[in-house]
Amino acid sequence: MIDLEIHSARPSDMDDVARLCWAYRDLLIERSVDLPQMVEAYYAKDSYAALVADLPRIHARPKGDILVAKLGNQIVGCAMYYPLTAAGTTEIKRVYVAPAARGSGAGRALIQESIARAKADGYARVVLDTMNGLTEAIALYERLGFQPCPPYYDAEPSFLPYLRFFEHPL
Fold it and tell me: The CATH number of 4-169 is which of 3.40.50.2300, 3.40.630.30, 1.10.3720.10, 3.90.180.10?
């Protein structure tokens, strides 16, 4: 049996969360090599570094959380959520599992725990977005009951054909 644990990130976990977020960025760049303007807009190195440093504030309790997946004594995945301005809506962000841990159920567990905690926090709806190139993530979201929805933020119109938006009622 796989020794998988999902818990809220502790201050001592944040270096691992940052490492996973940078690996997530690398994956997005790899999967969108034909979209350099989108990568630069959303994932420019300096602005992304500032974002990663600010994650504990952005996803702070009681309205958000950063979750980590731990296999044995190694943190192998992360997911996080925070409130949007639309009443009762939270967004799941930066779901990522390290390549060596894929297939372990960590991604599924992170999303399911994010949903459960968001519901316990009083949210009525979870949304997320992804890029077309992240086909494994899209398939997982669909298996977990997420449905396509219109964009819930003002994305650059030229990027919309490359993005997928999902929602899940709680």
Answer: 3.40.630.30
pTM over 0.85? The answer is: yes
Peptide bond into 62 cis (omega under 30): yes
Helices (H) and strands (E) in the chain, counts: 5, 7
Rg over alpha carbons for the chain, rounded to the nearest Å, is 15
pLDDT in tens, 75-133: 999 999 999 999 999 999 999 999 999 999 999 999 999 999 999 999 999 999 999 98
Six token digits for residue 125: 């709806």
Give 127's contacts (C-beta < 8 A, 6+ positions apart). Answer: 84, 89, 90, 91, 92, 149, 152, 165, 166, 167, 168
Domain residue ranges in the chain: 4-169
